[in-house]
Model the fold of this input.
Amino acid sequence: MLNDSVISIATRYWADHLGCTEAKLFSQPLRILHHGDDLADYHGVFALFREGAAMVSIPPEHADAIRPLLAGLAGGCSPEALATALQPVAATVIGPAYIGYALKVALPEHPTRALNPEDIPALHEFQQKCNPTEWEHGGSGTENSCSGVFVEGKLVAVAGYEIWGGRIAHILIISHPDYRGRGFARSAVAHLAARALEAGLLPQCRTLESNRASLRIAETLGFHPYARSLAVRLIANV
Done:
């Protein structure tokens, strides 16, 4: 389970991200608010769910079209119910996604090390083998803190993190398509998460709940769930 310190860090970040106070975050079965600064340019609806409460952030310019669709959810809201309610204006639904944190992680099963500038050629070669969409969502460059697994001199898994809100290390992970299912991605995440903790950061794993492999990595390494999220990109003519 997550302790009070972890919950406090996560709650502070997500409240800031949604543009509300920590006291209001997860304070009602359904709270609808307008996008704050972090989401100002997002043409969609973003929602966060925790312990029976939901925070739903909407673009203010489309509030008149969206609020009536959510009227039936006032007593409680799940990601699935929200996605269904927004079907008339939804272009793409992303989620539900798992958001979890760890204060301690399992050790890597495979030899893993931090990447450095000398590894750039290997990283570029690795990137060429990955699906461009997968790389967009999970790839990392050496400008970020990265951990990698090599097999016979070939880079086969890379984990990196972005720092969110000054305290959270949001982990990105991608593995070579020819070396999946062998625990290399898990080792890369384990090594990187330990480095993040040593740096005083809180490791965060966010992955689609439909991605069973990534969820399994998080669970076996010691991440614990904090919340679920859903993002709904709106059609152009809402």
User: Anything to note?
Assistant: Strands lie at 31-34, 44-50, 53-58, 90-101, 112-114, 146-151, 154-164, 168-175, 202-208, 224-234. Helices lie at 4-18, 63-66, 79-85, 120-128, 132-138, 184-198, 212-221. The chain has two domains: 4-97+229-234, 112-222. The longest strand covers residues 90-101.
